[in-house]
């Protein structure tokens, strides 16, 4: 990761809790992230993969949950997570019209390690979430292939690139260039050190509504060519923790990710698909378990406010992380998004950045 292009280095840290070592979702042990970026001609898109742990996810399922802030979206796999409270594939992020392709890639990925899927045992629930990158990307070209999804899975590591990478290549945020951002918070609970981390695919917010942590409201210097200021973007929030939680507790935590979006100036408009998904590696349920009763640990509700604070701060900062890391971009038919850092430099009179 380029430390010069992170939100905290730009003076845009959020909240009082301390970040983890990487200030990333990969501060949770075992979590890895990979990107496949497609940037050529009118193409500005890609795939981002989040892998919760290094084992067989289908056999060892992390407890998971989903919270839909506004459901203008085409994601796949959320219904079973809502019902069963577990995750059994990596999470893929991509553009709206490539969800099906990425689902197929995840099914093949699961079958390669579990040939009994759909035959001797149950089928698999691929989880793919999306944002519409059609302003900068020729989304109708349908260029994302299964090989791109596999590549993102294969190169996943603890080193998370941010900005206009992977699924974030063609995304926009508050009229600026958006993309992938991440942040984490280190939490001390019962004498142990834990982490909560967030990764966002940021593609939401009306131009002119962005509010920085110091209270400044920032607009792009050059007005957008879009005909109106209707909120019609999306954001996908992926939260991970190693704190033992139930799926009910995890859903409560995910709801507070909306606090971070509100601080930034978002009101989750009618046309915005705002979805939070999360998992904990602190509770893993076995696919092949034969016991009638299983034991899990959960956090005392008296301490859950700490996680509420952490997810709100991490979500807010992860969006700013995406904005800081993303360079300006011109894409399909000359559509343009300026970078936040260039705009801040212009507003301050500092043209040296």
TrEMBL record:
UniProt xrefs under InterPro entries: ArgJ-like_dom_sf (IPR016117), Peptidase_S58_DmpA (IPR005321)
Organism lineage string: Bacteria, Pseudomonadati, Pseudomonadota, Alphaproteobacteria, Hyphomicrobiales
Gene3D superfamilies registered for this protein in UniProt: L-amino peptidase D-ALA esterase/amidase
Superkingdom per UniProt: Bacteria
Family: Belongs to the peptidase S58 family.
Protein name: P1 family peptidase
Annotated organism of origin: Microvirga terrae
């Amino acid at each position: 990761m380029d430390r010069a292009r992170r939100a905290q280095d730009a003076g845009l840290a959020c909240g009082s809790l301390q970040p983890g070592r990487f200030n990333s979702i990969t501060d949770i042990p075992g979590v890895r992230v990979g990107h496949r970026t497609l940037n050529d001609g009118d193409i500005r898109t890609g795939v981002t993969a989040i892998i919760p742990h290094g084992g067989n996810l289908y056999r060892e399922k992390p407890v998971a949950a989903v919270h839909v802030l506004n459901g203008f979206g085409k994601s796949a796999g959320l219904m079973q997570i809502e019902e069963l409270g577990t995750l059994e594939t990596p999470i893929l992020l991509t553009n709206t019209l490539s969800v099906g392709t990425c689902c197929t890639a995840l099914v093949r990925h699961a079958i390669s390690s579990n040939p009994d899927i759909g035959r001797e045992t149950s089928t698999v629930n691929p989880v793919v979430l999306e944002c519409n990158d059609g302003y900068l990307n020729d989304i109708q070209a349908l260029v994302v292939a299964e090989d791109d999804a596999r590549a993102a899975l294969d190169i996943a590591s603890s080193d998370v690139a941010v900005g206009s990478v992977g699924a974030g290549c063609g995304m926009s945020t508050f009229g600026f260039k958006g993309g992938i951002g991440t942040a984490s918070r280190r939490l001390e609970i019962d004498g142990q050190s834990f982490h909560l981390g967030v990764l966002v695919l940021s593609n939401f917010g009306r131009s002119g509504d962005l509010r920085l942590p110091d209270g400044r409201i920032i607009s792009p210097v050059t007005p957008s060519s879009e005909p109106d200021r209707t909120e019609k973007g999306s954001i996908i929030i992926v939260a991970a923790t190693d704190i033992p939680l139930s799926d009910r507790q995890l859903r409560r935590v995910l709801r507070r990710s909306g606090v971070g979006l509100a601080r930034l100036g978002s009101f989750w408009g009618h046309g915005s698909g705002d979805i939070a998904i999360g998992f904990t590696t602190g509770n893993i349920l076995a696919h092949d378990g034969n016991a009638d009763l299983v034991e899990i640990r959960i956090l005392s509700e008296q301490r859950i406010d700490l996680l509420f604070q952490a997810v709100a701060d991490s979500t807010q900062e992860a969006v700013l992380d995406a904005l800081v890391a993303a360079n300006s971009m011109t894409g399909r038919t000359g559509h343009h998004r300026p970078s936040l850092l260039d705009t801040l430099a212009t507003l301050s009179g500092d043209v040296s950045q």
